[in-house]
């Protein structure tokens, strides 16, 4: 798991630095990624690039891995501290969430949101404020 742990830590570091190319270099061409702030998922590096670019234009999310455990089937569960701020610096969410990674051939093949009933159907609770803005 050491190599997978390092890979995932590098991905979080690149995400937090907004290093798109660095993060995408750690993923398979057909990576599957949840759209936590919108609901649904994206497939492929260019779709992840577009999603993150859009997300970062609306929010300032930062994730810090706290603990990693290896699961059956080569999955890695990561408990993270997730801090989501508005672009003006207001805290929108400060919580711990679970991410579940699938690593294949030394690259991230998929990330799913852990322990959420239907993680791809709706936005993550961390972004729930989005649905009520403007009401």
Strand and helix layout:
Layout: H1 2-16, H2 20-24, E1 27-34, E2 41-43, H3 45-56, E3 59-70, E4 75-86, E5 91-104, E6 107-114, H4 129-132
Parallel strand pairs: 1-6
Antiparallel strand pairs: 1-2, 3-4, 4-5, 5-6
Describe this structure in words.
- This protein has 135 residues and is an alpha+beta fold.
- It has a single domain (2-130), classed as Nuclear Transport Factor 2, Chain: A, CATH 3.10.450.50.
- The chain contains 4 helices and 6 strands; from the N terminus they run ααββαββββα.
- Strands 2-1-6-5-4-3 form a 6-stranded mixed sheet, with helices on one face.
- A hairpin with a 2-residue loop joins strand 5 and strand 6 (107-114).
- The longest helix is centred in the first third of the chain and has 15 residues, at 2-16.
- It comes from Terriglobus saanensis (strain ATCC BAA-1853 / DSM 23119 / SP1PR4).
- This is SnoaL-like domain-containing protein.
- Residues 8-110 form the SnoaL-like domain.
């Amino acid at each position: 798991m050491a190599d997978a742990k390092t890979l995932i830590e590098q991905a979080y570091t690149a995400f937090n630095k907004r290093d798109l190319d660095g993060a995408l270099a750690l993923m398979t061409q057909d990576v599957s990624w949840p759209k936590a702030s919108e609901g649904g998922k994206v497939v492929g590096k260019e779709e992840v690039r577009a999603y993150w670019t859009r997300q970062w234009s609306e929010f300032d999310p930062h994730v810090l891995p706290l603990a990693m455990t290896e699961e059956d089937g080569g999955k890695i569960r990561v408990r993270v501290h997730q801090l989501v701020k508005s672009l003006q610096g207001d805290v929108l969410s400060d919580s711990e969430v679970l991410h579940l990674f699938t690593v294949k051939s030394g690259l991230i093949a998929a990330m799913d949101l852990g322990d959420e009933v239907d993680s791809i159907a709706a936005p993550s609770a961390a972004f729930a404020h989005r649905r009520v803005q403007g009401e």
